[in-house]
Amino acid sequence: MPTRERTPPPVGKSVLLVEDDRDTRESLIELLDAEGYRTIAVENGAEALAYLSSHRPCLIIADFVMPDMGGGDLVKAVKGSETLRDIPIVILTAASKYMMGGDLSVPVLSKPISLNALLAVLRQHCGALTAA
Predict the structure, then answer these.
(1) Residue among 41, 36, 47, 35 nearest 10 (CA)
(2) Which domains does the chain have, with CATH numbers?
(3) What pTM was computed for the model?
(4) Do 42 and 17 form a contact (C-beta atoms < 8 A)?
(5) What is the pLDDT along the chain (132 residues), one digit of tens a residue?
(6) Which of 41, 47, 52, 126 could form an SS bridge with 17, CB 3.0 to 4.6 Å?
């Protein structure tokens, strides 16, 4: 499972980033690092579930359209799991609400991503950090 971790901040401040596009993934890792969060990056929902079997991030940030298992299926799997359902998830997507089909019952941020909106979600669920 390809993962990428950076300098760890305090316990409980890791963010799971689920994004198949390398450029978007790298940009988001840089942003999260700058804010002081430890970022674990995987490329699809199946890899995310494997990671979640032994880790508890403060937030999952997931793309909607990905190979193998997309963000919608990941939300269903996490929210359907007794042990994972309390982990907050935010979906990032360029897809229209029509393409997404139905309410996922999680926040959805449109691409291109609003930095302020993403930071607000991060701070709500993980607290504000300052980079070292």
Answers:
(1) 36
(2) 14-126 (3.40.50.2300)
(3) 0.83
(4) yes
(5) 455 554 444 444 899 999 999 999 999 999 898 888 899 999 999 999 999 999 999 999 999 888 888 888 999 999 999 999 999 999 888 865 545 555 667 878 888 888 899 999 999 998 876 554
(6) 41
